[in-house]
Write a structure and sequence with these properties.
Elements lengths: L5 H19 L14 H11 L7 H34 L9 H10 L12 H15 L6 H17 L10 H23 L8 H15 L14 H4 L9 H24 L3 H8 L1 H23 L4 H4 L9 H38 L2
Helix pairs in contact: 1-2, 1-10, 1-11, 1-12, 2-7, 2-10, 3-5, 5-7, 6-7, 8-10, 12-14
């Protein structure tokens, strides 16, 4: 079994989260590859690359629960408090009605119980997908046959996507779609990387041609929103059962390609690695940064907050001039926030050790 360099995986996470943040600012970080076409599937792919077969089902559940759901619900509690705190100031509550169902169950149905934490919708979905993938891993058959099965599920999810508009089963359609990309990540780590060169010039030509053809089906007619997995991200609005699968694959390939051809030059760039290591925190907090900046700018310019409250959570001030300022701040500030959380945790642990473990 081949093991991909951890540095490459981390830089791939860096690229993935940068594409996510760029997408929420409505610009494409990689020309020809719109952000909504592949970024979430890239994270599922990375999860497949990291999939470890050695753990039993119970142990695997415990590990994924700790790494995915514990920080998710910690952030959910934090943002519930933030949302309640700022609601009287801005005159709007960003989220669904507060009750146990919305705070505990809705994360697994839509992940949009709180607007500010909505980018983390995929975390509960990832948890479900990985648990199902783990269960399926016990089935004794070839990896190729499994891939065919997972691709069938993805096509099935897309073909019957109209039913995904029912939020009670949206999670199921998301999972069926995502399983194929977890398995592709697993296959890449175990069978492709180090054995098969998929980054030849012919492969690049082929991917560019395929992506150009896929672009012809662009329903948004916009270079910034582009060919999307809006089916997967929202409520099932993409009227094609093939394009989202192929454009996710081409986007993942070009992401791997970028890391492959640049790795020797950027492998020692500590800040890029820091972005990858803090991708969870960036995903959780970049919308808070966007909105904080927006309200500060509105306050400085004396513009009523109502102009923001009448728009959605992704609205930001003067996109022509401020997009890249928001982009940089949305990546850097959450990193320092994460570092602050780490320091606080260490301080609490140290205080507890000194005062209660004597």
């Amino acid at each position: 079994m081949n093991t991909i360099c951890n540095g490459k995986i981390n830089l791939l996470k860096t690229l993935a989260i940068m594409v996510v943040v760029a997408g929420h600012l409505e610009f494409s970080l990689i020309p020809m590859f719109p952000p909504y076409s592949f970024q979430v599937m890239l994270f599922f792919f990375i999860s497949g690359m990291l999939f470890n077969e050695k753990y039993g089902l119970v142990e695997y559940f415990k590990r994924r629960f700790k790494s995915l759901l514990v920080p998710y619900y910690s952030y959910a509690i934090f943002y519930l408090g933030i949302t309640m705190l700022i609601a009287p100031v801005i005159g709007k509550f960003w989220g669904l009605k507060i009750n146990l169902f919305n705070e505990l169950i809705t994360p697994f149905l839509t992940g949009h119980q709180l607007d500010l934490i909505s980018p983390l919708w995929f975390v509960p979905c990832l948890f479900i997908t990985l648990m199902i993938y783990k269960i399926f891993s016990y089935i004794k058959c070839s990896n190729i046959l499994k891939l065919v099965f997972y691709l069938f599920l993805a096509f099935f999810a897309m073909y019957y996507q109209k039913y995904a508009q029912n939020i009670n089963i949206l999670w199921l359609f998301r999972t069926m779609f995502a399983l194929a990309f977890v398995h592709l990540g697993y296959l890449y780590r175990t069978h492709v990387e180090g054995n098969i060169n998929i980054f030849s010039s012919k492969a690049l030509y082929s991917v560019l041609i395929i992506q150009a053809l896929l672009w012809l089906t662009n329903q948004d007619y916009s270079a910034v929103d582009g060919i999307g997995l809006h089916f997967l991200l929202v409520w099932g609005q993409y009227n094609n059962c093939i394009v989202p699968i192929f454009t996710a694959i081409t986007g993942i390939w070009v992401s791997l390609f970028i890391i492959e051809i640049t790795y020797d030059k950027i492998c020692d760039w500590k800040f890029l690695h820091k972005i990858g290591k803090n991708s969870y925190h960036i995903m959780a907090n970049h919308l808070l940064v966007f909105n904080f900046l927006t309200y500060v700018i509105l306050a400085i310019k004396g513009i009523p907050f109502d102009i923001k409250n009448n728009a959605d959570i992704y609205w930001f001030y003067d996109p022509v001039k401020t997009t890249y300022f928001y982009f940089v701040a949305g990546i850097i500030l959450p990193i320092y926030f994460a570092q602050g959380l780490k320091n606080l945790k260490l301080a609490i642990a140290d205080f507890t050790a000194r005062n209660f473990n004597k």
